[in-house]
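Study this:
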Amino acid sequence: MASFQKKGKFKQVMQSKPFLVFLGVLILIFIYSIFGFVNKMQDTVKNRELVEEKITELEKSKEKFNSDISKLKTENGVEENIREKFGLVKDGENMILVIDDKNKTEGENKPNSQGFFSFLKNWFK
């Protein structure tokens, strides 16, 4: 009979309002921590995608640099590089330089864009 009464007290404690409130608060804290964990997982996935993109960019630049290095190991590659950097030409070749005219005014560069009324005024002159 004593064990039956102990089971009854345990059942009463488990079904009491303070214990149920405590259990509810515990469940809410657990749910809150799960949502925090899910948010951290999403951030981690985004960061991983960014890092993978950066890795692919770095691999592409590595391939480009390796091709440039192999190109510079040849005589033609060295010659081409010097021509690009310093603007040199071989004997018998000519170089054409295109220079912008600095004396142009802004009015010559832009069409007359002062508005509709100035267009009409200029049209009737």
Summary: The two ends are 120 Å apart (CA to CA). The longest helix spans residues 17-72. The mean pLDDT is 85. The helical segments are 2-14, 17-72, 75-86, 106-109, 116-123.
